[in-house]
C-alpha cells in the first residue's frame, strides 16, 4: 500500500521534472536560435531583397487588419471615454484619453497580438512545412545556411515591421477617436487637439511606445521562428506549433508589457 | 537591381510608418508647442505653490510667454523659490505681479504674470517681489465653512430679535414666483 503511494508520488514528481526540463531545454534552444539569427544576419542585409520580401509578407499584408482594427479601437475608446468623462464635465479631455491609451499601451500591445495571429502563425507554418518537406535539409546539402537564408530575413522583417505597424495603429486609432468625438459627439475640435498636445509627451509617451513595439517585434518573431524550427515534421506537429505560437506570443507580449511599463514609469 | 512590385509596396509601407510617427509627434505630441526661443530666467518666492510643476506654462494675458524651469525650497524663509524662463522677445516691468492660477476648477496650475507700470524691465537673475500664492481648495472650503458657520450664528441672533421683519423682507424679495 505505502509502496504504491510512494510510487505514484515519485511518478508525479518525475513527470513535473520532465516537463520543466523540456521547457528549459526549449528556452535554451530558442536563445541559441536568437543568437544564431543575430550572428548570421549579415546575409539578410547584404541581400536585402530577401528581407524586403519578408517585410512585404509580414508588414504590408498586415496593413489592412491593423488599420481597420485601430480605427474601431479608437472609436470605441472615444465612445467609452466620453460616457465617463461627461459625468465630470471634462469631455474635452477625451482626446488625451484616447491618445495616451493608444500611444502608451494599446498601440504596441494590440498590434503585437494581431501581429502574432496574422504574421507569426504564417511564419511558423511556413518554416514547419519547410522542415516537414525537407527543404531545410536540402538547403544544408547545398551548403546554404538555413538560418542565414530563412530565419534571419524573417527576424529582421518582423523587427522592422512591428514599430511601423504600431505607430500606424496609434495614428489611425487617434483619427478614429477624433471621428467619433468631434463630428459625432460634438466635442470642440480645438480643445480636442490642444489638450492632446499639451498632455502627450514625445519622449515619455511616443518614443517609449515605439521602444515597446520593437521589443514586442523581437519577441513575437523569435517565438514564431523557433516554434516553426522546433515543430515535429508531421502535419499534427506543425498545427500544434502554430497554436503554441499564438498562445506563447500573446502571453509573452502581455507579460513583457507589464515589465517594460514598470521600467518606463519608474525611470 | 531590378525593381519589383514588392519594392514599391514595402516603400509605401515604410513611408506610411514614417508619416504616422511624424503625425504622432506633431499632431498628437507636444513637439511643436514646446519650442520657446531664447529665454531669460527670473525667480519668484511663493509661500505656497499648490500643485505647480516644472515645465508648467507661464502666461501673461492668457498667452504662453515662458515655462517654469525649476522649483526649489528656501530653508531659511521656508518659501518655495520658483524659477521661470521667459521668452527673450517679451520684457516685463520690474513691478510685475506673479500669481499661481488654476486652469479650470481642477485643472493644471500655471504662473500668471500681470505687468506693472515701472520703466525698468526684469533682467536675467532678477527676482519678482510681488507674488500671490496658489489657491488651495481645502483651505478655501474650510474658510468658507467657517464664515458660513459664523454667519448663521449671527442670523439666528438677528432672527431672535426681529423674526417678523426678516420673514416679510424675504417674501418681498422673492415675490410670489413658485420657486
UniProtKB/TrEMBL annotation, chain A:
- Annotated compartments: Cell inner membrane
- GO cellular component terms? ATP-binding cassette (ABC) transporter complex
Q: Does the keyword Endoplasmic reticulum apply?
A: no
Principal location: membrane
Q: Which domain of life is it from?
A: Bacteria
Membrane spanning residue stretches: 21-40, 60-82, 94-116, 155-185, 206-226, 246-266
Keywords (alphabetical) are: Cell inner membrane, Cell membrane, Membrane, Transmembrane, Transmembrane helix, Transport
How is this protein positioned relative to the membrane? Multi-pass membrane protein
One GO MF term on file is: phospholipid transporter activity
> Quaternary form?
The complex is composed of two ATP-binding proteins (MlaF), two transmembrane proteins (MlaE), two cytoplasmic solute-binding proteins (MlaB) and six periplasmic solute-binding proteins (MlaD).
What's this chain's function?
Part of the ABC transporter complex MlaFEDB, which is involved in a phospholipid transport pathway that maintains lipid asymmetry in the outer membrane by retrograde trafficking of phospholipids from the outer membrane to the inner membrane. Probably responsible for the translocation of the substrate across the membrane.
Name the family. Belongs to the MlaE permease family.
Any idea what this protein is called? Intermembrane phospholipid transport system permease protein MlaE
From TrEMBL, chain B:
GO molecular function annotation: phospholipid binding; phospholipid transporter activity
Q: What domain of life does the native source organism fall in?
A: Bacteria
Residue ranges spanning the membrane: these are 6-26
- The segment annotated Disordered runs over 153-179
Q: Pfam family of this protein, just one?
A: MlaD
Q: Which PANTHER family match?
A: INTERMEMBRANE PHOSPHOLIPID TRANSPORT SYSTEM BINDING PROTEIN MLAD, INTERMEMBRANE PHOSPHOLIPID TRANSPORT SYSTEM BINDING PROTEIN MLAD-RELATED
Q: Which organism is it from?
A: Methylotenera mobilis
- Protein name as it appears in the record: Outer membrane lipid asymmetry maintenance protein MlaD
Identify the keywords attached in UniProt to this record, alphabetized.
Membrane, Transmembrane, Transmembrane helix
Q: Does the keyword Phosphoprotein apply?
A: no
Q: Does the keyword Transmembrane apply?
A: yes
Residue ranges annotated for the Mce/MlaD domain, each copy included:
39-116
Amino acid at each position: 500500500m505505502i509502496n504504491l503511494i510512494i510510487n505514484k508520488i515519485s511518478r508525479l514528481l518525475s513527470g513535473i521534472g520532465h516537463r520543466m526540463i523540456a521547457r528549459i531545454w526549449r528556452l535554451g534552444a530558442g536563445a541559441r536560435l536568437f543568437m544564431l539569427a543575430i550572428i548570421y544576419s549579415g546575409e539578410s542585409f547584404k541581400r536585402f531583397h530577401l528581407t524586403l520580401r519578408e517585410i512585404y509578407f509580414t508588414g504590408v499584408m498586415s496593413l489592412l487588419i491593423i488599420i481597420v482594427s485601430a480605427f474601431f479601437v479608437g472609436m470605441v475608446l472615444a465612445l467609452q471615454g466620453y460616457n465617463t468623462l461627461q459625468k465630470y464635465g471634462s469631455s474635452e479631455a477625451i482626446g488625451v484619453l484616447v491618445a495616451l491609451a493608444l500611444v502608451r499601451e494599446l498601440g504596441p500591445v494590440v498590434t503585437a497580438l494581431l501581429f502574432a495571429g496574422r504574421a507569426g502563425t504564417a511564419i511558423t507554418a511556413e518554416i514547419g512545412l519547410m522542415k516537414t518537406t525537407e527543404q531545410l535539409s536540402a538547403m544544408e546539402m547545398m551548403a546554404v545556411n538555413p538560418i542565414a537564408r530563412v530565419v534571419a530575413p524573417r527576424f529582421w522583417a518582423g523587427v522592422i515591421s512591428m514599430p511601423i505597424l504600431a505607430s500606424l495603429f496609434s495614428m489611425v486609432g487617434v483619427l478614429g477617436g477624433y471621428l467619433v468625438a468631434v463630428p459625432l459627439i460634438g466635442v470642440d475640435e480645438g480643445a480636442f487637439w490642444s489638450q492632446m498636445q499639451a498632455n502627450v509627451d514625445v519622449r515619455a509617451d511616443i518614443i517609449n511606445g515605439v521602444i515597446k513595439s520593437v521589443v514586442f517585434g523581437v519577441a513575437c518573431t523569435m517565438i514564431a521562428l523557433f516554434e516553426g524550427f522546433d515543430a515535429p515534421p508531421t502535419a499534427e506537429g506543425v498545427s500544434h506549433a502554430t497554436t503554441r505560437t499564438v498562445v506563447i506570443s500573446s502571453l509573452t507580449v502581455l507579460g513583457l508589457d507589464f515589465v517594460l511599463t514598470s521600467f518606463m514609469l519608474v525611470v | 537591381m531590378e525593381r519589383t512590385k514588392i519594392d514599391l509596396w514595402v516603400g509605401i509601407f515604410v513611408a506610411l510608418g514614417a508619416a504616422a510617427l511624424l503625425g504622432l509627434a506633431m499632431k498628437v505630441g507636444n513637439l511643436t508647442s514646446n519650442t520657446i526661443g531664447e529665454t531669460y530666467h527670473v525667480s519668484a518666492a511663493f509661500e505656497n505653490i499648490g500643485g505647480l510643476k516644472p515645465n508648467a506654462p507661464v502666461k501673461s494675458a492668457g498667452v504662453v510667454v515662458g515655462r517654469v524651469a525649476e522649483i526649489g525650497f528656501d530653508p531659511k524663509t521656508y518659501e518655495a523659490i520658483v524659477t521661470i524662463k521667459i521668452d527673450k522677445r517679451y520684457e516685463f516691468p520690474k513691478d510685475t505681479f506673479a500669481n499661481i492660477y488654476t486652469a479650470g476648477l481642477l485643472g493644471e496650475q500655471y504662473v500668471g504674470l500681470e505687468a506693472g507700470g515701472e520703466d525698468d524691465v526684469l533682467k536675467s537673475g532678477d527676482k519678482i517681489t510681488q507674488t500671490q500664492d496658489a489657491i488651495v481648495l481645502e483651505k478655501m472650503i474650510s474658510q468658507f465653512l467657517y464664515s458660513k458657520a459664523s454667519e448663521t450664528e449671527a442670523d439666528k441672533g438677528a432672527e431672535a430679535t426681529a423674526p417678523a421683519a426678516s420673514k416679510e423682507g424675504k417674501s418681498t424679495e422673492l415675490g410670489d414666483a413658485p420657486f
